[in-house]
Amino acid sequence: MKIALVPLAASALLAVFLTGCEGDKKPAGGTAASGDPAAGNAKHAAHGEGPHEGAVADWGGGTYHVEFTVDHGKQEATVYILGGDEKTAAPIKTNAEKLILSIQQPAFQVDLMPSSQSGDPEGTSSRFVGKHEKLGIVQEFAGTIAGDVEGTPCVGEFKEEPHK
Question: Can you give the pLDDT at residue 61?
Fold first, then answer.
């Protein structure tokens, strides 16, 4: 009976995170925040590679961005929290003390734990790291990065593109 509740609980948690950052309803870049993931994806197409050569996604209506990178040999994902400029580290404090990485194909989840960089104030982190054997698969990953920033749930959808 408990096993059946795990997917239900995971779905409920993902539904909360898919609403985006609730506290950020102000316009970003002169346009109103819609909360519609499809509308946000058109905007995300403009994101290029991040400063760590990873896939960048909006995370918080322009307040934050997340950059997904993967080291297939280490079976490790690293997510960087970036500011609105998509370049500068933006240390955050998470209430859950972790972020959740959900990969679409093959479907799996990874807990990303804080791994502070030099310059991050104590109690915050601009880098989160997690390991999973499926990250060793050499492919372009797509998925979501979800977390709670000081009580505000945030989610960002990313998609890696083939490297040139």
Answer: 80
